[in-house]
Amino acid sequence: MKYLVLDLELTGPDLGYHDMIQIGAVLCDAQWNEQSHFLSNVYPENPEAISQRSEEIHGLSIYDLEDAPARYEVLESFEQWVRQTLGRNEYASLKDVILCGQGVLTDVNFLKWAFEEENIDWPFSYKILDLMSLSLLMYKVLKNNGKKVPKSHSLDAVAAMFGLSRDGEEHNALEDARLTAACFKAYWEIADNLKLEE
Fold first, then answer.
1. Per-residue pLDDT at 144
2. Share of the chain above pLDDT 90, in %
3. Over the range 149-184, which residues count as b (16 or more CB within 10 Å of their CB) and which as e?
């Protein structure tokens, strides 16, 4: 089992109009140990679609993306990075690679749509693991065991519960992917110690 933890920065929320402008990812083994990482800006297909709200979140303007590679180049590099990390050639299956993230369905939809738009076959599993959904369950388990949990299911809130935070003030997709992977790892460690009563 391999976990590919993703975070995309987007120009806005509307698939087909807005674009991804940064991909950050970490590839983890079955114990959530990082094997390799990936970070690339992406020049948007629709530069006019960068919304003020999204720019406030990720801090990337069209001027920051002037020298960024095109979407097709980034998708090829991204898939090649996964294959090289796993030691697999271009014909080997990646269906055992589970896509993970915080609110990951949006990221997967944007990524899959980009692959389709560029006529690149989707190489990954259709199984996904979402930190936000997992937190809904784990908060209940923790509360039932007398543990204090945050009110929010945001990445910052989940990370803070485990004593984790971003390294710096600058926000980028790779840092969020790493923080998300660390939260998954912390949940896995809790699960390893849970025992159900007979």
1. 93
2. 81
3. beeebebeebbebeebeeeeeeebbbbbbbbbbbbb
